[in-house]
Amino acid sequence: MTDRVARLTGRAVRDGPAGHPPHATLDDGTVVVVKDASADPGAAPAEAAGLRWIAVPGGPPVPRVLGADDAVLVTELVPPGRATPGAAERFGRELATLHAAGADAFGAPPPGGPARAWIGHTRMENRPHDGPWADWFATDRVLPYLRAARDRGALDPAGAAAVDDVCGRIGALAGPDEPPARLHGDLWSGNVLWSGDGGGDGAAWLIDPAAHGGHRESDLAMLDLFGLPHLDVVLAAYDEHSPLADGWRERVHLHQLFPLLVHAVLFGGGYGAQAVAAARRLRRLP
Fold first, then answer.
1. Are 6 and 27 in contact (CB under 8 A)?
2. Is 186 marked active-site?
3. Tens digit of pLDDT for each residue in 273-285?
4. Which UniProt keywords are listed (predicted)?
5. What's the CA gap between 4 and 8, in Å, rounded?
6. Where are the domains of the chain?
7. Of these residues, 40, 104, 164, 186, which one is catalytic?
8. How many helices (H) and strands (E) does the chain have?
9. Domain 81-283 is in which class?
10. Which of 33, 38, 42, 220 has the fewest CB atoms below 10 angstroms from its CB?
């Protein structure tokens, strides 16, 4: 791995890689993060393309990609810090700026990113869709993972039917049409690193994207699903910078169906039950 890191960065490696996540020190003293994605073929170049795509002016800071090949990704190290209200407010504004950078279509991959990408350790198809968000979200996000979760026994037939019913009326639940947003795509709290770098109250850096064109409420719903320090501050700053459409809070459960089903596929029935509960709440909406 040392030789590989040296080849990818163009620098000799003085120490490592070692630790979790693995760090290596280059000959000039730079500390880098080395991610071995060989277990998920194509994940490293997909993540590299995603990191480059979501690094937009005025958006959340993103670690620079220092090198990538078919199985290994090397990025700069994010300086450590802590979550503060000031950093959260900044993050809300910057996340709105990232989303506003847009995408060519719903489902579109980052430039240079593969159509067959990954979210966690499961495949995710990125195929540009010409129609409305709701149709794409049901067809390419919810239904494939619903089938996979049902097949592994994470949902029973009644639960699967509840989710399928939501997909059947998703157009009525989706809210006003919006243009494709530039999404991180896997925006749970573990992929937000709070750093003292950036001055003042610090900043929230984004790592490990599953980037694609989608609906901006999806990133916000994932932050809500797994929790984030000062989330209320983030959402208020986001809404002030880029006002959300009426009813967005009622649509959180809709946008959470995808990550819940992904987790059901990866980890089993507890997440399947959460997906079914979300679907049943949505079925009660007018």
1. no
2. yes
3. 999 999 999 977 7
4. Kinase, Transferase
5. 6
6. 81-283
7. 186
8. 11, 11
9. alpha beta
10. 38
